[in-house]
């Protein structure tokens, strides 16, 4: 197996307003918290926030592009949304191998997955299970 | 509390090729399985598939738009990706209230969440925890 416990990778992207609007259009999630600045300003958030799943999706970018990389099959993803993401925030999604699945013949990797913003605050936390490429 | 155990809502959308390409651009997840028809055709999938998180994101559309609806705060989402989604598939995301969180003062709803395709096959399964609007 090409992976070791503790292997880590990340991907960083600044979340533009356009990302949020395209995500709203793709998913149909036009919750006012994402697309109505006046309503969002009057809410506990004080302004528009990104869809939680938009930030979380950067985790899949790392899994599918970097670790384990192209050909990975995403089996399971647990997510906790721990802080709001605002337009202009720079997010870094992290994945870290925590279990090689050797008890299952190495067929599945388990990874700790989380997303931080430019202040180091964790905005999404959770865990993934994937079938790595070539298995 | 305005919700009852068993309350259910859904949202249906046909996943266009453009949804997959925009999702790839937004997230940076250009895994060949999503954007390279030749590579995908040679894989176990036999052709391009949508990002798992794209189908899963329709769950958030139901939560944020229908049940519990606008103002909902998404706290937790567990996902299992159980079958591939292909361009042209018509997905229906479902949510169903399974716990009113009354032991926590009704502050949090727990919902069973799943996505089916046009053949009735479950492509995403899981569970959400949300703070409903007005709590």
Give me the secondary-structure topology.
The structure is a homodimer of 135-residue chains.
Chain A lengths: L7 E7 L2 H11 L4 H4 L1 H5 L10 H14 L7 E9 L8 E10 L9 E8 L5 E10 L4
Antiparallel strand pairs in A: 1-3, 2-5, 3-4, 4-5
In short:
The structure is a homodimer of 135-residue chains. By secondary structure, chain A is of the alpha+beta class. The first copy, chain A, contains 4 helices and 5 strands, in the order E-H-H-H-H-E-E-E-E.
Can you put this structure into words, describing what you see?
The structure is a homodimer of 135-residue chains. In chain A, 25% of the residues lie in helices and 33% in strands. Chain A is an alpha+beta fold and 135 residues long. Chain A has a domain at 8-15 and 50-131: Roll (Thiol Ester Dehydrase, Chain A), CATH 3.10.129. In chain A, strands 1-3-4-5-2 form a five-stranded antiparallel β-sheet, covered by helices on one side. In chain A, strand 4 (109-116) and strand 5 (122-131) form a beta hairpin. Chain A is elongated, with a radius of gyration of 16 Å. At the A-B interface, helix 1, helix 2, helix 4 and strand 2 of A face helix 1, helix 2, helix 4 and strand 2 of B.
Which descriptors apply to this entry?
homodimer, 135 residues, Thiol Ester Dehydrase, Chain A, 5-stranded antiparallel sheet, 4 helices, 5 strands
The CATH homologous superfamily name of the domain at 8-15 and 50-131 in chain A equals: Hotdog Thioesterase
Under the CATH scheme, the architecture of the domain at 8-15 and 50-131 in chain A is: Roll
Largest sheet strand order of chain A: 1-3-4-5-2
Low-pLDDT residue spans of chain A: none
Largest sheet of chain A: 5 strands, antiparallel
Oligomer: homodimer
């Amino acid at each position: 197996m090409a992976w070791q416990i503790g292997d880590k990778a990340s991907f960083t992207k600044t979340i533009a307003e356009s990302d949020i609007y395209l995500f709203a259009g793709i998913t149909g999630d036009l919750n006012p918290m994402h697309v109505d600045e006046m309503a969002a300003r009057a809410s506990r958030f004080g302004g528009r926030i990104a869809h939680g799943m938009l930030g979380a999706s950067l985790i899949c970018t790392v899994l599918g592009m970097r670790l384990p990389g192209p050909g990975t099959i995403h089996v399971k993803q647990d997510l906790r949304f721990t802080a709001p993401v605002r337009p202009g925030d720079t997010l870094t999604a992290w994945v870290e191998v925590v279990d090689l699945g050797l008890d299952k013949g190495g067929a599945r990797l388990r990874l700790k997955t989380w997303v931080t913003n430019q202040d180091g605050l964790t905005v999404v936390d959770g865990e993934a299970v994937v079938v790595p490429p070539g298995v």
